[in-house]
Amino acid sequence: MKRNKHLYLPGPRRGVFHWQTTKGSAEVILAGSVLDAMTLYQAGMRNVSCVYGTQGLTADHEELLQRFRAQRVLLFLDGDAAGRQATEVLSHRLRRLGLAVGDVKLAGANDPNELWMRLGADEARRVLTDCVTSAREELGAAESGRAAASGAGTSSPLTVKSTIKEKKVTASSISAEDGPQVSREDGGGWEVVIGAGTSGARTYRVRGLTATGLDRLRVNLRITEGRQVHLDTLDLYSHRSRVALVRELAELFGSDEGDMSRELTTLIDTLERLRLEQGKDAESPAHVEMTDSEREAALRLLRAPDLIARLGADFEALGCVGETTSLTVGYLATISRLLDEPLGLMIVSRSGAGKSRLQETLCAMVPDESLMRYTRLTGQALFYQEEHALRHKVLAIDEEAGATEAAYSLRTLQSAQVLTVAATRTDPATGKLKTDEYRVEGPVVILFTTTSPEAMDYETRNRFVQVGVDESDEQTRRILARQRQADTLAGVLGRESASFTASVHQNAQRLLRPLKVVNPFASLLVYPDRSLQMRREQKKYLTLIKTIALLHQHQRPVKKARRGDAEVEYVEVTREDIVLANHLARQVLGRCLDELAPPTRQLLKHLVNLRRPGRPSSGGAGGTGAPGTPAPEKRAGGTFTRQDVRQATGWTDWQVRVHLRQLVELEYVVVASGCNGKRMTYELLFDGDPDEDLRYLDGLVDVAETEPAGATKRQLVREKATLRGPCEPHSQGRRPLPSVL
User: Fold this and answer.
1) Where are the alpha helices (DSSP H) in 175-238?
2) CATH of the domain at 83
3) Among 32, 48, 180, 346, which is least packed, fewest CB within 10 Å?
4) What is the mean pLDDT of residues 476-487?
5) Global pTM value
6) Domain holding 643: CATH number?
7) Does residue 1 carry a pLDDT above 80?
8) What is the DSSP letter of 675?
C-alpha cells in the first residue's frame, strides 16, 4: 500500500486489533501498525496483534495481556530510529507487567509490509518467519541463562518456559504404569494428568463430558504445563479440530506434533472410559446409606402392628390436620410406585382449601431419590428422559395448569407405564435424516393438584384416583387453630421434630422392596359391572389392596415360587388388607364414579339447602356466608342468582361461576332467564339427596374368617352382593371407619 494513504483518526486510540490472539496463547507478536500485523498474519503467524505507532501501547493492551495471562511478547516494530527507541520503551513497560519481551529485528526493510511488497509473498514469508524464529530463540536462551545464573532451577516470576526441545515429554516415553492420572474436580469436571512425575507433565481439565451423544465428544479443555495455559472448546471426534489443537499445543509447549497427537489420543481413550462409567452410574439407582439407628427407627415403623394408625398421627406431626383418609390413600399411592401398575393421584378442591399442603405432606415422606417434582411440564419433556429415569419414582406436578401441554404423555404414561417416540436427526456421517427411537419406562406415580372440576380432559382424568379436601366449617376451625398453635413454643418444637418424622418415613420407604403381591382372596372379590368404566376402576381397587400388602411386607413372610429357571419373591394379601381397602374404596374410589367433582357436589348441597323452606340464611358444609350478610331474597318459582349463592355460602364469584357451570352442563341446574348482559337466574332441577346420590361402593365384600382355599359363597360377609351400577341410587349411608384408622 502506498505511503501516506492510510492514517489514524484523531482522538485517543481504543481497542485491540485481533484481540482473540491473546486468549489462550502464551506468546503474542506485537507489530507496529495494523497493516504490519495483517502482513504477518498473511505470512502464517496467527498469534499477532499490533500497537498503534511508536506511542501506541494503550491501557487496553496491558489489561488484555494480563487478563488472558500471556507469558511473552515479541515486539516487531519498524527498523528505523523511532522504531528502535519505541522498542526499548515498550519493552520496559511490558516487563513491569511480568512479561518476557523479545525483539524481532528486520534487516533490509523498514517494516514487514514494505518487505512483503518488495520481495513478494513467498520470499517475504520465509524472511519474516526466520526473523521471528531467531527472536524467539534469543529470548529463550536469555531466559534460560538468567534461570541458571540465579541457581533456582526454575523460572523466575517474570520468565516463561521457552521452546527448548529437551523440556518436552513424548507420549511414547510414558510407560504403562505412568499412564494418565484421573481425579474428580470439585466443579463436576475431571482432571487428567499425562506424564505425571516428569518435568513435562501436562494437566487436562475437562468439563462438559456427558454420557449421551456417543457420536461426538464435545468438551471444554484447560491444558496447563507449568505456567503455560491453553483454553479451548471443541469436539475431539472432529479431525479438523484435533489437527488445529495439536498444532497450537505443539507450538505452545515446544513439543513434536506427533507426540502431541499421541497424547491427545490417550486423553480421548481416557474420556471414553469415563463416559461409559458415567452412563453406568446414571442407570444404577441412587443409594443412600443409613446409619444403624436410622435403619432401626424405620424398621420399627414398618413392623408396627398399628402402622396405618401411625400414618394418621404422623400426618398431623407434619402439620396436616384432618384429611386422614385422603392422605392415607395418597401415601399408599406413592408406595404403589413399587408395583408394575401403580396408582395415579389427583387432588381436587377449591382454591385455598389446602390441596397443596396435602401434596407437600405426601412429597415430604417420599425419599429424595424417588421424587421428581416440577412446577411445569412441556409437551415433549417426558419423552426425552433417560430410559429408566422414571422407574419407581413419584412424578409430582404442583398444579394441573402446569401440565396441560403434557396431558397426552401423562395419560399414556399412567395407562401403559411406558413412552416411546421416534424422532429424526441428521446423521453426521452421511448428512441424511435418520430416525432415532427414545423410550422411557415406569412404573411411575403421577401426582398433581387442581381447582378445576374439568381438570385435564375426561380421558386423562378418569385414569387417576381423585381425592378431595374437607371444606367444612369444622375443618376450617381445626386448620386455623393449628396455624395459631404453630407460633407457640410447642409449635416451634413440633416443626423441629417434623423433619425427623419425614426422615423416618423416607428411610422406611427405602427399605421396601418391589416384591410381587399375590391375593389368595381374589376369586372372592366382586365389583360393579354395569359400566364400561368399571374395567378401569377395578384395577385401581385391586392395586390398592396390593399396595397395602406391600407396605406390610416386613410384618409377614416373603415367599418364593419357581417356574422353570425363574424364581419369584412375593407377599400375600390378608383379610385385614381387604377390609382396609374396602373402606378406602368406598370413601375415595367411589368418587371416581361420580360425574361431579367434589367441590361441585358441595355446591349442589348448598343449592338444595337454598331451596328448602325454613333453611338458615348461611352455613352448611363447605362454606359459610359472611357475618351480617342479609338472607337472599325469595324468588318466584324457586329461582336464584349467583349473588344468592355467594351470600348463602361465602364462596367467591369465580368459584360459583366455575362449579355452577358444570351443574348447568350436566343438567342439575338450568338457566331460567338472562342473556346478552341481563341478570342470570337459575333453577334447580335436581330433586333428591346429594349425599344419597353419591356412588359409594357399598357392595364390596369382606372375606370371612376362613381359609381362602376352601372358600365358597357362604364364606362371604354378604351372601349376595348387591352392587349398584354407576347410575343406580342406593339407600345405605357411609360405613363406619375401620379400627385400623
Assistant:
1) none
2) 3.40.1360.10
3) 180
4) 89
5) 0.58
6) 1.10.10.10
7) no
8) -
Cα dihedral 600→603→604→607 (10° resolution): -160
Residue of 250, 220, 252 whose CA lies nearest to 235: 220
Judge contact between 444 and 342, C-beta under 8 A.
yes
- What confidence score (pLDDT) does residue 726 get? 36
223 and 130 within one domain: no
Does residue 220 sit in helix, strand or coil? Answer: strand
Q: Is residue 469 part of a domain?
A: no
Is residue 740 assigned to a domain?
A: no
DSSP bridge pairs for 102: 74
Instruction: Give residue-wise pLDDT tens across range 639-657.
Output: 888 888 888 888 888 888 8
Query: Higher pLDDT residue, 178 or 599?
Result: 599
Please tell me what DSSP assigns to residue 558.
P
Q: 283, 313, 345: which is the final residue of a domain? A: 283
Domain holding 83, by residue range, is 19-150
Q: What is the DSSP string of 71-125?
A: -EEEEE--SSHHHHHHHHHHHHHHHHTT-EEEE---SSSSSHHHHHHHH-HHHHH
Averaged pLDDT, 347-364 = 88
Selection from 16, 544, 105, 609 nearest residue 330 by Cα? 544
Q: Helix 307-317 to helix 292-302 angle, to the nearest 10 degrees? A: 120
Q: Mean pLDDT over residues 285-300, rounded?
A: 86
Q: Does residue 230 lie within any of the structural domains?
A: yes
Number of folded domains in the chain? 3
CB 639 within 8 Å of CB 699? no
Residue 179 sits in the same domain as residue 78: no
Cell numbers 456427558 correspond to 210
Q: pLDDT band at 281, cuts 50/70/90?
A: low
Domain shared by 95 and 169, yes or no = no
Q: Are residues 91 and 199 in the same domain?
A: no
Q: Is residue 530 part of a domain?
A: no
Residues 613 and 684 in one domain: yes
Shared domain for 219 and 270, answered yes or no, is: yes
> Domain ends where: 122, 150, 178?
150
646 and 621 within one domain? yes
The type of residue at 671 is V
Question: How far apart, in whole angstroms, are the C-alpha atoms of residue 730 and residue 724?
Answer: 7
For the record, the C-alpha cell of 362 comes out as 405426601
Query: Do 102 and 189 have their domain in common?
Result: no
Per-residue pLDDT at 329 exceeds 90: yes
**The one-letter amino acid at 195:** G
Structure-block grid coordinates of residue 134: 531467531
Q: Identify residue 101 by its one-letter amino acid code.
A: V
CB 707 within 8 A of CB 530: no
Q: What is the largest CA-CA distance in the chain?
A: 120
Please, how many CA atoms are within 13 Å of residue 411, restricted to the half-sphere of its CB?
14
| pLDDT in the model for residue 204 | 92
Q: All 3 cell numbers of residue 6?
A: 492510510
Element (H, E) at 240: helix 239-253
**Per-residue pLDDT, 288:** 79
**From CA 461, how far away is CA 346, in angstroms rounded?**
8
Has residue 29 got a pLDDT over 80?
yes
